[in-house]
């Protein structure tokens, strides 16, 4: 196993992203269509937040109502992406080593890191990317 392999070797480069003006319906569609669990929220090319599928599930269950309409449609109309996304982000550069990424993910309570170079979102690395990389080493 190479000790200095950069995260750019395993990150997803074709990032599915949301704009702050998108709604939670669009987010849910993207999660399901692309079978992903984390979507960066961007303004231009700069990342301003991260939305996880767990964030959607949390508000759907937390705010269930007695309304006869679909719970998701009621809840999705109550919140904006900016209200639900995580704003305090930890990011890494494309030159950060895979080992350093693994250390960050092992210590924190999240499962994806945006990869940012010169304030521009260039990729995303997830625990799944890391596990796939480790499995290739055996």
From TrEMBL:
Pfam families: CBS. Keywords: CBS domain. Residues 11-68, 85-138 form the CBS domain. The keyword DNA damage does not apply. InterPro entries: CBS_dom, CBS_dom_sf, Diverse_CBS-Domain. The keyword Protease does not apply. Signal peptide: none annotated. This is HPP family protein.
């Amino acid at each position: 196993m190479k000790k200095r392999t950069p995260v750019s070797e395993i990150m997803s480069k074709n990032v599915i992203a949301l704009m702050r003006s998108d709604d939670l319906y669009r987010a849910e569609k993207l999660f399901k269509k692309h079978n992903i669990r984390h979507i960066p929220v961007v303004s231009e090319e700069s990342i301003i937040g991260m939305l996880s599928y767990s964030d959607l599930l949390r508000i759907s269950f937390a705010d269930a109502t007695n309304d006869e309409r679909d719970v998701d449609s009621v809840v999705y109309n109550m919140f904006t992406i900016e209200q639900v996304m995580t704003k305090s982000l930890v990011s890494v550069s494309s030159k950060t080593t895979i080992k350093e990424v693994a250390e960050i993910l092992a210590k924190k309570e999240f499962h994806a890191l945006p990869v940012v170079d010169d304030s521009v979102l260039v990729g995303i690395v997830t625990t799944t990317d890391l596990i796939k990389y480790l499995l290739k080493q055996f």
